[in-house]
Amino acid sequence: MKKLFKVILFQTLLLSLMVFNTISAQDAKINTSVKYDEIYDPFEPVNRVILGFNFFIDDVAIRPVVKTYKYIAPEPIEAGVSNFFSNLKEPIRGISFVLQGEFMKSLNSVGRFTVNSLTSLGTFDLASRIGMTKNETDIGLTLAKSGFSSGPYIVVPIIGPSNFRDLGGNVVEYFVDPISNNVPNRTYLSVGSGLNARIEVDEEVDQVRGISTDRYELIKSVYYQNRNSQIEEDYVQNLPTPKIYID
Predict the structure, then answer these.
(1) I need a labelling partner for 139 at 20 to 30 A (CA). Which of 53, 163, 170, 180 fits?
(2) Mean pLDDT of the chain, nearest integer
């Protein structure tokens, strides 16, 4: 049971690290003049404590590894590693698209995985070069499009921001992912995927650390805005909640 819990934590790290990446995912910049709508957050006092703990762990354990890796690894190596881990997520994307009724996108994900795996073990995205564009999705988004409410906002230790629906989606992925279920030690794979996600958003992490406003509210709002924009597929300026206004 302990091993299962650890694996779930690390496998959901990719999603949770959107704590640092949600603004950049919309090609936006962190802005200290953001105003926030209310989000259902009944556990805010506990969430704030956990967020502080997560930043502490990042400071003492994760950030030094990330900075060292970025210093010594050439850019082509970073890109290859990023492509490798992204490619491993294509099968679960394919499953998610099937559940959403997006069968052509599912076939595209399977095709991307096949092409990239056979040509470079996923380290080079040849599929995109030949017109097979990557489409992002996950089980959490599938549940959202099926009408499941997000539930309360939560900050999970080590993992970061989530909600009941998205966290549940990651638990489902743990059991149905055909890749991680067929490797000798999936814990190492999950840790590598999480660290790679953290490396990809290192600049955003530094920006979040440097803001003078309430970073808890900022992280919460941009997390929900990013997830809502993914659910709607095309970004909508006036989302019901939350909305972010730039003065």
Answers:
(1) 53
(2) 82
